[in-house]
Amino acid sequence: MSSLRDPNRPRYFISIAAELASVHPRTLRIYEEEGLVCPQRRNNLRLYSEADIHRVRIIRFLTRRQGVNLAGVKVILQLESIGKIRVYDLFDEDDVERYVQGDPEPEPATEPEPQAVAKTSSR
Hints:
Elements: E1 12-13, H1 14-21, H2 25-33, E2 40-42, E3 45-48, H3 50-65, H4 70-81, H5 87-90, H6 93-100
Antiparallel strand pairs: 1-3, 2-3
């Protein structure tokens, strides 16, 4: 495979990777601290690959769309890495793919706050 097309080749600094994954750079650092993503390092700089960005998008899907906490995400990703499950099999494959490709459906709208009713004193 050409090194230019290798999805595991580290190529993005943290600021670019964060933008591509639609997260804040601090989020990437937290994911690294939690062991969810492991960017390569060169001269003390984090370098993210396409595969890392894809993984971050899956983590976002699990946390934001499915409400899984980071401990749960870690378990899911560990089970996936040993071949016990696939994220795409746990949830609607099209929904996961849409979200991971950067085209998430809008979050469900919260119901509007009820308008305050003016109280009148009854005499």
